[in-house]
Amino acid sequence: MEDKRELIRDTVRELLRIAAMYQRIEQMPIPVGNDGDQVSTREAHMIQAVGEGRDLSVTQLADHFGITKSGASQMVKKLENKGYLLKRQSPHSNKEFVLSLTDLGQKVFRIHEQLHGKDFNTLIDGLESFSISQIATLSVLMESIGTIMEKRLSTRDQENTGK
After folding, report:
1. How far are the Cα atoms of 9, 10, 20, 71, 153 from residue 28, in angstroms, in the given order?
2. Per-residue pLDDT tens over the stretch 76-130
3. CB of 51 within 8 A of CB of 106?
4. Concatenated DSSP letters for 132-149?
5. What percent of the chain lies above the pLDDT cut of 70?
6. Is the CB of residue 35 less than 8 Å from the CB of residue 83?
7. Rounded Cα gap, residues 1 and 88, in angstroms
8. What is the DSSP-derived secondary structure letter of residue 158?
9. Which range is least confidently modeled, 9-13, 60-64, 151-155?
10. How many whole angstroms separate alpha carbon 150 and alpha carbon 146?
């Protein structure tokens, strides 16, 4: 049984290592033109989500990324100031805004799609060799990790808001 626990520990350590690398990748700049303009990968992911969504709200963006509405609002404001996003009043609610991409935002969206597409296709190709049961196991593992992270973030958010 100790071999199983050690394999579990090794797997968790590898996930933590991957998470740390992902954090570094999220900070990497993506050039968006010849003038030296760039966005972080995190910003590009926000732009991608808006580009893929139709009339996406700040709340929906926060839900999509598992962040607070305040955090999403700050990122939207930053991207709006840089000229990538437009924010307009929702036709369905006076309290909500919907987001869309500017022409410059569309450019970033296309650049990110090309970069992301290569990595995504490489990952898909690698997973093609997995059996259905291996992929199902991986899916259950990812759901378990996601649940733990959501619970931890929810607890932290509650502590920060005093609820």
Report:
1. 29, 27, 13, 19, 24
2. 999 999 999 999 887 777 778 889 999 999 999 998 888 877 888 899 999 999 9
3. yes
4. HHHHHHHHHHHHHHHHHH
5. 96
6. no
7. 58
8. H
9. 151-155
10. 6
**What is the SS3 assignment for 6-68?**
HHHHHHHHHHHHHHHHHHHHHHCEEECCCCCCEEEHHHHHHHHHHHHCCCEEHHHHHHHHCCC
Tokens read off for 112: 């990110």
Residue 163 has pLDDT above 70, yes or no: no
Phi then psi for 95, rounded to 5 degrees? -95, -10
Which two tokens mark 132?
């259905």
Give me 86's structure tokens.
């437009």
